[in-house]
Specification:
The protein has 15 helices and 20 strands. The protein is α/β, with parallel strands linked by helices. Strands 2, 3, 4, 7, 8, 9, 12, 13, 16, 17 and 20 form an 11-stranded mixed β-sheet that branches. Strand 18 and strand 19 form a beta hairpin. Helix 3 packs across helix 12, helix 9 crosses helix 10 and helix 13 packs parallel to helix 14. The longest helix has 31 residues. It is globular, with a radius of gyration of 25 Å. The termini are far apart.
Length: 517
């Protein structure tokens, strides 16, 4: 147990972190987290459901028939800064010397393909006109500048504080699309998209997790666009925001696993990744919660196609949930005969793809009922999965726990034992990718909210290596929101087409057809 100073004890109290939690975090650095044990990749027909084209409408119609009676929420993790979107442009500004070479020479020497693409497509970016007009206004001799000087100034004006400051903005507030004179942020596109599938009783509710420093920016953006968006969609909007809670931060340590202490004597904590957002999700109250990342939007002409598959996923969830709730009501009343047991067991095995305990069939009737309730009475999520085209990130797998039981999980590469050839081979065989396209049922069969913290696997966090002020450090991430934080949910993977997945990881992604009106 480390000895804490009075300042550090007060710091923990302010953050809402107990000394016991701190000690557990430090112990994790020393002992590590167990790696996930992959059994096999989930594939179509073996963990991933492919809905036949002829049945899609049936699921969409089922959702539509229930929609007006449901409380629906769209939950959008939107905390991240846009810095990584512009990483290659920062590298260009740091390394390029206009007195030594041309930009084309720099591109060729560095094989800077991203930079080449950026400048070739520069006029197609939604912010191009605004940046150019601002430069022409600020620079008297703009027209007489060299091409290289114009390009360098454009990048600086776009990125930095004395210009548009996109690099420091949340990704949700960067202009993504252009409809003539109207420039649209990712935040606004989420409002438009939600009207198609996440609105009920003429209202769309959206919740964004953001950085505290930018709440006023989001509020101003909503005030600016609210009237126009409501006029276009015919829906009213209820928008709410929350932040990653300080109590979810994790301690950082040096390479000898000693806590890092700042000059003021305080411990150095870091945000613990998107797994920290489980607290934010747990605070929400709705029958159905759609989860989608802030950068996964498309131009409005594709919203209808995207909505069809979101409603399909919701229809799958509601059908499964309806059946599970009916079974749970019967089990609660203890009105279950032998045939009903068989039916429930088959539903759990074939529809929920969940495994009952190995010795289940030796149980008495009472214990069988308890096992069935335990298997059915859980949060339910239906996750869209797209075919893997090399995107970095998590994928769907069958995973084996310490008791030898297998379950469906979304696994990140950082959770896999990279030293184990067999595990690497299983990971390499993954056919599908997790686009963070989830529909969640978070109430039980009696209408009560689940406490989602009871369904996470705390053993699925991981340790990362970072640097700070030129020194290496170790950081710790909580079980990811759609990874270990949902490990003990009932999970269904459903294949969805690539048109539903249009992330903007770098600014050049805005040049793709899905982002060009």
């Amino acid at each position: 147990m480390i000895e804490l100073t009075a300042i550090q004890k007060e710091q923990l109290k302010e953050k809402g972190i107990s000394q016991e939690t701190l000690q557990k975090q430090i112990s994790r650095f020393v002992n590590g987290f167990p790696t996930v044990k992959l059994k096999k990749a989930a594939t179509v027909g073996d963990g991933i459901v492919r809905i036949p084209e002829s049945e899609i409408k049936e699921y969409v119609d089922f959702y539509e028939s229930k929609r007006e009676q449901l409380d629906i929420l769209k939950f959008v993790p939107a905390s991240g800064a846009a810095t990584r979107m512009f990483k290659f442009l920062h590298e260009f500004l740091q390394e390029y010397d206009a007195s030594v070479e041309s930009i084309n020479s720099f591109i060729n020497r560095k094989n800077a393909r991203d930079l080449f693409t950026f400048f070739v497509g520069i006029e197609k970016f939604p912010f191009y006109g605004a940046v150019i007009n601002s430069l022409k206004k600020d620079v008297e001799n703009w027209q007489s500048l060299t091409d290289r000087d114009k390009k360098e100034r454009f990048v600086r004006k776009m990125l930095f504080k004395d210009g548009f400051n996109f690099s420091a903005m949340p990704k949700g507030l960067v202009p993504f699309h252009s409809y003539g004179d109207h420039k649209v942020t990712a935040f606004e596109e989420h409002l438009h998209e939600a009207s198609g599938y996440a609105a009920t009783r003429n209202e769309a509710r959206l919740h964004f997790t953001i950085a505290p420093a930018y709440q006023n920016h989001f509020v101003k953006e909503f005030d600016r666009i609210e009237e126009a968006v409501e006029a276009k969609t015919g829906k009213n909007y209820e928008i709410s925001f929350s932040y990653q809670k300080p109590s979810t931060d994790t301690i950082a340590v040096d390479m000898q696993d000693q806590p890092i202490v700042d000059k003021d004597g305080k411990l150095f904590f870091r945000p613990a990744g998107h797994g920290a957002l489980l607290e934010n999700l747990n605070d929400q109250d709705a029958d159905i919660i759609f989860i989608k990342n802030i950068d996964n939007v498309t131009v409005s002409t594709m919203d209808e196609d995207v909505s069809v598959y979101k409603k399909m996923l919701a229809g799958v969830l509601l059908k499964l949930q309806e059946k599970a709730f009916a079974y749970l009501n019967d089990l609660q009343k203890n009105s279950v005969d032998h045939g009903a047991f068989d039916e429930m067991e088959q539903f759990i095995s074939d529809q929920l793809l969940r495994r009952l305990p190995r010795d289940y069939h030796k149980y008495t009737k009472q214990y069988k009922c308890e096992a069935l309730i335990e298997a059915l009475n859980r949060p339910l999520r239906v996750c869209g999965m797209v075919k893997n085209e090399g995107e970095p990130g998590g994928g769907p797998f069958w995973v084996t726990n310490e008791f030898g039981q297998s379950s469906l999980q979304i696994v990140e590469s950082a959770q896999v034992d990279s030293d184990d050839y067999r595990q690497r081979k299983i990971a390499a065989n993954c056919t599908h990718f997790n686009p963070v396209d989830l529909v969640c049922g978070v109430r039980d069969f009696q209408g009560n909210k689940f406490d989602l913290s009871q369904f996470r696997d705390l053993e699925t966090g991981f340790i990362t290596h970072k640097s700070r002020m030129g020194h290496e450090l170790k950081a710790q991430e909580l079980p990811g929101l759609w990874n270990g934080a949902m490990a003990h949910w009932n999970t269904i993977f459903v294949e969805v087409p690539l048109i539903t997945f249009n992330p903007v990881k770098t600014v050049n992604d805005l040049l793709k057809p899905a982002h060009q009106a």
